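This entry is listed below:
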Amino acid sequence: MSEGEQVIEDDPEAEGRRLFLEELQRMNERGHSTTALVAASALENFLEKAIKARMPHLNNELAGKLFDGYGPFATFSAKIDTAYAMAIIDRSVFKDIHVVREIRNVFAHPDGAAIVTFAHPKLDRIFSKWQDYRPNIDKPMFLQVKFKDILERMKPAINSGVQARPGIVE
C-alpha cells in the first residue's frame, strides 16, 4: 500500500469524499443523456416548424391529427424523411439528423437499467457514420459541434418557411 492510500484509509472523511465523487460522476453521466436528448429534441422541433410552415391549409385540429399520437408526422424519423422529401433539408442534413436520431434512441431506449453514457458500445458505431468523427474525440462536445453545424445548414430552410407562413401552428 502506498503512502497516499494509507492517508486516505486513515482519513475519516474519505468515505464521504468517495461518495461525493461517485455522485459527481453519476451527475456527469446523466448529463450525457441530457446533451443527446436536448439536441435531438431541438432538431425535431425545428423540422416540425419548417414542415408546418409549408402547409398553407393547416389549422390546429389538423396539426393535432398529423403531428401528435399516431399521426403520420408524429415521429422524429417521419419528420426527417418528410423534410427531405419536401426539399426542406438537403441529403447531407437528412443523413446527419438521422445519425442524431439514432444517438437519441440509444439514450431514450436503454437496454436494461444502467445509465447510458457516451461510452456505450453502440455509440461508436453510430458516431462513425460521420466521416469527420474519430474514436478519440470527446463525443458530447462533438455532438454539440455537429448540432450547431446542422442548425446552421438548416437556417435558410427554416427562415424561408417562417417568412412564407409567419403564423406557424404550434
Notes: Residues 4-8 have pLDDT under 50 and may be disordered. The chain has one domain: 12-164.
